[in-house]
Amino acid sequence: MTTDTFEKDILKGLQSNPKRLFSKYFYDDKGSAIFQQIMHMPEYYLPGCETEILQHRVKDIINKLPQASYDVVELGAGDGSKTAFFLDAMIREKKKVTYIPLDISPEILSVNEEIMRQKLPGLCVKPIAGDYFETLKNISSREIPKIILFLGSNIGNFEGKKALDFIRFVKSFMGKGDYFMLGVDLKKHPRTILAAYDDPAGITKRFNINLLDRINRELNGNFNTADFDHYASYDPISGATKSYLISKVEQKVRVSGHTLTFSPYEAIHMEISQKYSLHDLDRIRENAGFKNDHHFTDSKSYFSISLFEV
């Protein structure tokens, strides 16, 4: 991500009405470290639920995959540590697998390769660095059946119809008999969801505030972070979880030579994390043009790994 793009996006967002920032910029080195703390919070149920499915429902998933060989293509693969459970089970079930992790960070793909080398020696790994909106085209010419993975509830970062548009975009690179494997956070008691996004220890608040620190550092900003508070909301009808930073006072902030004015209690929209019901997912699958779907949930039905077939 270039500094120019970062600057343009930040200024555009903060000069909009209402103001907004973009969650993709949360993950500088410090933000990534804070997110690792979030992943280990007792209130943040998502990674544990997804891992439970990959460990205990993985044979049920593989039983829906009829071919002997697959390319397993992972979007935003990260270090691949959870995916290793799925790949290991595929190999144990005598499937021939080529793993193709896609990620914007060449550094994390190096970590991914090393983890796979340690956990699954002999696995064929073909990483592709870059934005997967661009790099997905590299896999469309391969003739081996594909399973495209989009795990970690990352689909929840797409607002409204953009989730359906994204799934249709992914499907455009798929052929008959390919599968899209989607990790999805499900609708549940609102208090359970809110606790995951507004924890009592304030780690999520630090994660959001860190983006203001990054703006100060990289864009010559002068945010006083003590003048902002974190607020999260969840709408159980729409399933939208949203987080905001709230200006506690009337203030002016300088960013890259521009003066930005904040009213008392004015909000900056920071991120959305959309939650779905299984019925919602069935409707998305149908509207995206997939043939059928199967949902595999954890023991609490908090999370689903859903398999869409072309």
UniProtKB/TrEMBL annotation:
S-adenosyl-L-methionine recorded as keyword: no
Pfam families: Methyltransf_33 (PF10017)
Gene: egtD
Catalytic activity, EC: 2.1.1.44
NCBIfam families: egtD_ergothio (TIGR03438)
Top-rank EC class of the record's enzyme: transferase
MF terms (GO), sorted A to Z: L-histidine N(alpha)-methyltransferase activity
InterPro entries: EgtD (IPR035094), EgtD_Methyltrsf_superfamily (IPR051128), MeTrfase_dom (IPR019257), MeTrfase_EgtD-like (IPR017804), SAM-dependent_MTases_sf (IPR029063)
Protein name stated in the entry: L-histidine N(Alpha)-methyltransferase
Span of domain Histidine-specific methyltransferase SAM-dependent: 6-309
Annotated GO biological process: methylation
Key words of the record: Methyltransferase, Transferase
Superkingdom as given in the UniProt entry: Bacteria
